[in-house]
């Protein structure tokens, strides 16, 4: 069962997205109209009052997103993999000096050539879900690939320049 995220507009302030944890604590992220964010921990006795707020810089918000988002995406895909026999999820890096660093995803022709799909790219703490063919890889990116063993191995071969 997945957690339910509630989103509320705060007129003149911004938007807050909250989730209630399994143990009953409510936490959220407040995104102000000017773009800065705060992590909000709500009071146990008064769920409408914040007991703690933590202002976040853009880099800090991205770091927390990486800590929570990227591993969760990969974990979720791995759980799906267990449910679908024959389907794998792996992270494949774009190494420095790779022929695909600085080139668009479409140049790999990965799906056409292997049947495997690049479902996300992890870049400097950010998850880029469902990148399109014009998405340009950078050295240090990790792509999340879903497919059969042969398909995932095929994408790895393409990245190495074997084929």
TrEMBL record:
Domain RCK C-terminal: 75-161
InterPro entries: AAE_transporter, KhtT, KhtT-like_N, RCK_C, RCK_C_sf
Pfam family, one: KhtT_N
PROSITE patterns linked: RCK_C
Superkingdom, natural source: Bacteria
PANTHER family tied to this protein: K(+)_H(+) ANTIPORTER SUBUNIT KHTT
Protein name: Cation:proton antiporter regulatory subunit
UniProt source species: Cryptosporangium japonicum
């Amino acid at each position: 069962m997945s957690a339910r995220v509630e989103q509320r507009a705060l007129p003149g302030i911004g938007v807050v997205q909250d989730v209630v944890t399994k143990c009953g604590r409510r936490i959220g992220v407040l995104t102000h109209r000017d773009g800065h964010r705060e992590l909000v921990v709500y009071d146990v006795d008064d769920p409408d009052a914040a007991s703690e707020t933590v202002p976040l810089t853009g880099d800090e918000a991205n770091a927390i997103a990486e800590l929570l988002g990227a591993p969760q995406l990969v974990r979720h895909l791995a759980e799906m993999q267990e449910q679908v026999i024959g389907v794998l999820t792996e992270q494949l890096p774009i190494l420095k000096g790779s022929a695909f660093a600085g080139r668009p995803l479409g140049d790999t022709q990965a799906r056409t050539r292997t049947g495997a799909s690049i479902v996300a790219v992890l870049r400097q703490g950010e998850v880029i879900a469902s990148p399109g063919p014009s998405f340009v890889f950078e050295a240090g990116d990790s792509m999340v690939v879903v497919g059969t063993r042969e398909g995932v191995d095929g994408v790895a071969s393409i990245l190495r320049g074997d084929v």
